[in-house]
Protein: L-threonine 3-dehydrogenase, mitochondrial
Organism: Coemansia spiralis
Amino acid sequence: MLLHKTTRTFSRLNLARQLSTSTSSHRPPRVLVTGSLGQLGSTMVSALRSRFGSENVIASDIKKPTVDQRNAGPFVFADVLNYRSLEQITVDYGIDWVVHFSAVLSAAGERNPTLGLSVNVNGFQNVLELAKNHRLRLLSPSTMGAFGPTTPKDATPDLTIMRPNTIYGISKVHMELMGEYYTEKYGVDFRSLRYPGIISADTPPGGGTTDYAIDIFHGALKHNSYTCFLKAETRLPMAYIDDCIRGTMQLLEAPEHSLSQRVYNVHACDFTPAELAEEIRHQHSESFTINYQPDSRQVIADTWPRTMADDAARSDWGWNPVIGTPEMTRIMLEKLRPMYQNTALDHDVSAAEPAAINTESAAPAAAVLAH
Ligand SMILES: NC(=O)C1=CN([C@@H]2O[C@H](COP(=O)(O)OP(=O)(O)OC[C@H]3O[C@@H](n4cnc5c(N)ncnc54)[C@H](O)[C@@H]3O)[C@@H](O)[C@H]2O)C=CC1
Ligand SMILES: CC(=O)[C@H](N)C(=O)O
């Protein structure tokens, strides 16, 4: 009897979910992207706009967009800590789906735990309530940082020990569990991927432990040398942004019945700083040098997987990354080279100079050059 009642409740939830989060066949979904001016957000907005039309994708952040970003389509100020303003945007624009990219990343979260907790936990809670109250589909990425020091490091499975010891990791495990809870309890169509480190040339990284894998290209092109904040042998899972965004679109659009779980590992390639430096030597300059000055980010990286198993993502909704380390290196060098074309290679770099590239303040300077 109890079983029967439970089954009926879930059937009603499933029906309600399908009716509410699928949009009318006459029009594409209208999507709100939070944190759209971050490293991944602007590329995600472009992909969504190509697919659903510019007017159907509402970009948002608490930062000021560039003129190009503002002219590319609708942009609104949205602080994810303010539920009422999220609700107003949802009503005003008739939002169907939310892609929630606002977050404080691993290294930034350790520097400012209060901010990390607030944005990652309270901000997500607001978006989750929004999805529940307005019947929205919600995609919010998780991270390999949700794993911790006691997690198996190689071919880390989807379901395993998760005892992270960073604010970022703890808040992402909270996000995963709350998303699953709202799916079960309220029929929210919550979807998530545990990204590896994401590499892109178009937008600067936002304060993570994997940022070195972007900074190193700026160092190579500007100084022909780089001082890395991780040790030579630190292997981490990574993906080039095109694979990441294509996969995110695939999960976002996958029919709900194809999802056997709500949170999926995704893995594209993996390398150590020494291996990446070798690839840069091979493709860019044989005299490229790398030095190692591990800092607090090494402690974080040591708790993360070396590789992740992503079989469920591949079989459920077609995760299929195509860009490996050599191809990613080629693309990064090609995209960033024009930025440094007039910079003579400097083989006599003082120790302090390349170290500056490691700070998050160096990346925005590169982005300004890029615009
Ligand atoms: N970039 C990467 O390598 C990885 C990213 N992810 C996840 O992907 C998502 C996007 O990451 P990124 O673009 O790299 O992050 P990011 O740090 O570059 O961008 C985050 C954005 O959130 C915005 N934001 C901060 N506080 C906000 C608030 N109160 N209200 C609204 N917006 C706010 C920031 O202004 C920023 O534009 C995050 O959930 C992150 O955890 C997961 C694994 C790897
Ligand atoms: C892997 C991530 O989540 C991010 N790039 C970070 O290093 O914090």
Q: What stands out?
A: The first strand starts at residue 31 and ends at 34. Residues 34-35, 37-41, 61-63, 78-81, 101-103, 105, 119, 123, 141, 143, 195, 197-198, 206-208, 210 surround NAI (ligand 1) (CB under 6 Å). Confidence is low (pLDDT under 50) at residues 1-16, 346-371. The chain has one domain: 2-365.
